[in-house]
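Protein in question kept underneath.
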Amino acid sequence: MIAAPDASLDGILSPRELEALRFGYRERVTDVHLRHIRDLPATLPDIFAAAAARAEAAGFDGVELHYAHAYTMASFLSAANTRDDGYGRSLEGRVRLPLEVFRAVRRRVTDAFVVGCRYLAEECIDGGSTLDDAVFFGIEFARAGMDFVSLSRGGKFEDARQPPIGWAVYPYTGPSGWECMPTTLSDARGPFGRNVPPAAKVRAAIRRSGLTTPVVVSGGIHEFDQAEDILSRGDADVVGAARQSLADPDWFLKIRLGRGAEVRRCSFTNYCEGLDQKHKQVTCKLWDRTELSTPGIPLSVDRKRRLVAPAWS
């Protein structure tokens, strides 16, 4: 159970202990007094490599190593990583394990298997990694031979809202989470392409270093003209659009066929993310209000939502 901390405990408990009262206990990569945390650099490369090998054996064409958001590898890259064992503090120390993981993966799979990573252009938290950090990491990843780098932003635990009693903290509920998955209600700027300028700076730095590693950008990209403008300006080489692709899995085909007017546009309310936060099957609200009573349509386990997008003709 999670209880609100008593203000009278300030000065008695450490900031770490006070945070545990607010959000529940959460291990950090800096908890090196714990042996399994201290040993992460020795154990993680093989774990990632084995997973990539399984993916290739299963028939996948490649993997994207997740170095972003609130995940372990992102914590090693973070400016908040103060480990003093060579795997923290400096930019070189913070990028060391992500590079070792990549090299372990690359050794375990075939040359034809694509291996890239997703990491943060900016952590968007107080004292977090900045765009300058991301530029350094991007060049290092490109030099190491990654087949692509994909830029996201935010999505951290550090500024998440206090969860309801009995719930775990969820890393997309604070300002950095809004940067990661911006909605039409986040702020006056809105959700559309707010990660494009930082990604463009990372790409430009990689190109100045004489490298041609493709850069992927995502975040509020929802229509063909917007994506085309990003590519034509050279801000990125590949455009990712998760929520729009959930809203309409056929939007690429519709555009290719000249039927763009039929595309279901994501409304960026994060209905889908809200379901994920509650560990429910993720669907789209644009599906759930269409033909729910049609016989034979797969529904969620609670029978309230579609599990497939509505058909188009």
Observations:
- Residues 1-5 have pLDDT under 50 and may be disordered.
